[in-house]
Design a protein that fits this description.
The structure holds two protein chains of two kinds. By secondary structure, chain A is mostly helical. Chain A is about 50% helix and about 10% strand. Chain B contains seven helices and five strands. Classes of the chains: A mainly alpha, B alpha+beta. Strand 3 of chain A pairs parallel with strand 4 (about 185-195) of chain B, so a sheet runs across the interface.
């Protein structure tokens, strides 16, 4: 350990960090952005907008058949009933997994993702391997990610290339009949709502 | 592009990997609210990045480069200001190669296709921005959902009053897309604007 690191001096900023700071400083001087507004956006996506929201939607659909019907009929409206909506969630379609059909979401052109219910996408979702391979060999990619599907199960891949954003409604796991909605919420993972895992 | 190898999952991945990523995301949100950029213009600016820079940089560096490009192109700030403040180079995307947008037949907003219709994605390979994935061009599918009408991205990136067009989810059998290499029992449903489609 050198002397600098020992005294916890910060490492010099990377080039991209310097560029980001330059853009923010210039826009702040021009009165176009405020650091506090940026802070509030970061805080919202770091703390309040994430897969815990989607998990509440899924758990509600598992315990309330009428809600499930509304969710599959008009995803945007049913998700708004629980207080969720906003950028990248204005046109939601919810696709339901069944014993016969497995759904999975991708965006081959960029990284479209349902922010209000899942937050911002993980890096693997935005990566060229996932984006290129999920449409071409979905069973193989799902198997690599831990979802083994029998040949009798159809795979439906949804490429979010236009304005609709998708959420997968996973199958409720067996043996959870005694669980209440709050406990069920804890079973629902981000990856299950993308379709690359089971709850 | 293909043959990228395995999907690499980072366990317990944070929302932002460094504080600058969150700052760039926040700036993007604010200049979107101000109408200086929108989803289509940001995507187009990312597509205009130097390909090596694009592939060799993290996701939010794409945003940073696109936002700076669009703000420079609209004279909100200059590249010289950016580089002076950075104390070094500030790469921006290349100029658009797209010809000025000329309206083809304007949509009247009513859907030409219905659920169950067989359609083919046109083979056009326009310069500039489009939301017509290459892997479905020339391929036949079935309309499985009619969605609302939205600004045509190909026109939206040129700024002035883009036409609104119906959009559809079109389902393609894997065999139609990938031939003998297709997996069995798989379909891919793709969101497409009406002018990308023709009756099959």
């Amino acid at each position: 350990m050198n002397e600098d690191a020992h005294h916890h001096h910060p490492t010099p900023p990377s080039p991209v960090e310097t560029r980001a700071a330059a853009l923010e400083a210039l826009l702040t001087e021009k009165g176009l952005v405020s650091p506090e507004f940026i802070d509030s956006i970061i805080s919202a996506y770091a703390n309040d907008i994430g897969p815990m929201n989607g998990a509440r939607v899924v758990a509600r659909a598992w315990v309330d058949g009428e809600y499930r019907e509304r969710l599959l009929g008009d995803g945007t409206a049913a998700i708004a009933e629980l207080g969720f909506g906003g950028p990248e969630g204005e046109h939601m379609v919810v696709v339901e997994n069944t014993p016969e059909v497995h759904n999975v979401i991708v965006c081959t052109l960029c990284s479209c993702y349902p922010w209000p219910v899942l937050g911002l996408p993980p890096n693997w979702y935005k990566s060229p391997p996932y984006r290129s391979r999920m449409v071409r060999e979905p069973r193989k990619v799902l198997s690599e990610m831990g979802v083994e599907l029998s040949e009798s199960v159809s795979v439906r891949v949804w490429d979010s290339s236009a304005e609709v954003r998708y959420l997968v409604l996973p199958e409720r796991p067996q043996g959870t009949d005694g669980m209440n909605e709050e406990d069920l919420t804890k079973l629902v993972t981000r990856d299950a709502m993308i379709g690359v895992a089971r709850p | 592009m293909q043959d990228f190898g395995p999907v690499l999952v980072e366990p317990a991945e944070p929302v932002f990997h460094a504080s600058w990523e969150g700052r760039v995301f926040g700036i993007g949100g604010i200049v979107t609210l101000q109408g200086l950029v929108n989803t289509n213009t940001v995507r187009h600016a990312i597509e205009r990045m130097d390909p090596a820079h694009y592939l060799g940089s993290p996701y939010f560096e794409h945003w940073l480069t696109a936002l700076a490009t669009l703000l420079v192109e609209q004279d909100v700030l200059t590249r010289e200001e950016l580089e002076a403040r950075t104390g070094g180079s500030f790469p921006v995307s290349r100029p658009s190669q797209a010809p000025p947008w000329t309206a083809a037949a304007a949509s009247d907003g009513r859907s030409r296709f219905a659920v169950g219709d067989r359609v083919r994605v046109s083979e056009a390979h326009p310069r500039g921005h489009t939301r017509r994935p290459r892997y479905v061009r020339g391929k036949q599918g079935v309309v499985d959902r009619c969605d609302g009408a939205f600004a045509l991205p190909d026109a939206d990136v040129h700024g002035d009053d883009p036409p609104s067009e119906p959009t559809y989810s079109v389902r393609f059998d894997a065999a139609e897309l990938w031939g003998n290499e297709a997996e069995s029992g798989a379909t891919v449903s793709v969101g497409l604007w009406e002018s990308y489609l023709e009756q099959a």
